[in-house]
Design goal:
By secondary structure, the protein is mainly alpha-helical. It has a single domain, classed as Up-down Bundle (Methane Monooxygenase Hydroxylase, Chain G, domain 1), CATH 1.20.58.220. The protein contains 7 helices and no strands.
Length: 221
Amino acid sequence: MTRHFEEELDQVKQKTLRMGSLVEDMVERAVTSLVDRDSQLAEETIAFDEKVDHLEVEIDGDCLRLLALQQPAAGDLRFITTAIKIITDLERMADQAVNISERAIELNEEPQLKPYIDIPIMSQLSQKMLRDSLDAFVRKDVVLARAVIVADNRVDALKNQVFRELLTFMMGDTATIPRAIRLLLVSRYLERIADHATNIAEMVVFLVEGRNIRHAAQQAS
């Protein structure tokens, strides 16, 4: 029974990694569809969301079954409940990738407002945060998890930089406002993806140390 239980826990872990890999691919494809002005790629990315949703339901069902039938001890209980929360964040990241793809399709129909420099960097950082947060989950690596949390500051700084630059465009020419707003939304979606990766990293700290550090800064102040 113990060996079978461990195998089922490992399956949950592998499915979660597969879901994370799919989400990371969606984020990369979504931003590429914007930078390369490839609306077909954007449409394909949107279609991937169904696979992510399916995996979320499957993993959630696996976790609930383990909770109901196996009565896991404290450490395994934290692992299962953490996995349930992680797949929720992954599903929301996929939704943000869909949002980016939808804005890309709209922007691709108009002349490009400006070269895309900061947005691809935000995407790369967010993808790395996602990758590292899941690696930290699998390896129970608190040091890596905390590095992900710190990395969120750089994504926030880039979003603010994008805002300042696009504000200059909108103030200089009101005709740019619709395109600028869509790009602002894209930067916001990427910031949210980084936030979800941060959530996962914070949950890894809880998994390993049993301490909930979410909102710790607000509580301290």
